Amino acid sequence: MSKLEDSEIPQTDPFELFEAWFEEAKESEPNDPNAMALATATPEGAPSVRMVLLKGHGPEGFTFYTNAQSRKGGEIRANMQASLLFHWKSLRRQIRIEGPLTEVSSEMADAYFHSRPFVSQVGSAASDQSRPLDTRATYVRRVEDMEAVCKQAGEVPRPPHWTGFTLNPKCIEFWLDRPNRLHDRRQFTRTEDGGWTNTLLFP
């Protein structure tokens, strides 16, 4: 059998495989190897997608943080399901992940919010994310005013609507570029007992 006829995506624990690919991406991607496309949908099924940053991962799922009053936050709370896509062009690999979402605890949200740079905390607290803005100067002034107040107070209070969500994967698909577009795809699917089955997919 030729090398091209063999799958290069191993039949292994999908979280271990994700970790291995993610570590390689950290070495090869010039910017934000943790960037991922987050796809959500309204209760009526209208889709939307945007880039967010992965901030935690493991067998419990994949965690990101956001303003729950934003468009994506509203869609998430109305329909607690989502899909993630990592595309690492330098490695010619991608991973698709699908599953339900759960909101992180207040303690987790507090801990991550206060781990961010001070100005990033202020910027999040000052933003009415996804709502109309008359001019950028309005937002900048708002950030500057809040920064002055928070410096005097010694901290930036986490807005109650600034939170995080964890996607608990039901399906994880690994994609590997191969010559002549004869790509390699392996899909892992969660079983009822918490284990995984996997199969190759036609590219």
Full CATH superfamily name: Electron Transport, Fmn-binding Protein, Chain A
**In the CATH hierarchy, what is the class?**
Mainly Beta
Rg, please? 20 Å
Largest sheet: 10 strands, antiparallel
**Strand and helix order:** HEEEEHEEHHHEEEE
Proportion in β-strands: 25-35%
Distance from first to last alpha carbon: 19 Å
The helix tally amounts to 5
Judging from the principal axes of the Cα atoms, what is the shape? elongated
CATH architecture: Roll
Number of strands: 10
What does the secondary structure layout of this molecule look like, with pairings?
Elements: H1 14-28, E1 35-41, E2 47-53, E3 56-58, E4 61-67, H2 71-78, E5 81-88, E6 93-103, H3 106-115, H4 118-126, H5 136-153, E7 162-167, E8 171-176, E9 184-190, E10 196-201
Antiparallel strand pairs: 1-2, 1-5, 3-4, 4-7, 5-6, 6-7, 6-8, 8-9, 9-10
Give a written overview of the molecule.
The chain has 203 residues and is of the alpha+beta class. Strands 1, 2, 3, 4, 5, 6, 7, 8, 9 and 10 form a 10-stranded antiparallel β-sheet that branches. It is built from 5 helices and 10 strands; from the N terminus they run αββββαββαααββββ. The chain is elongated, with a radius of gyration of 20 Å. Helix content is 30%, strand content 33%. The model has no long low-confidence stretch (mean pLDDT 93).
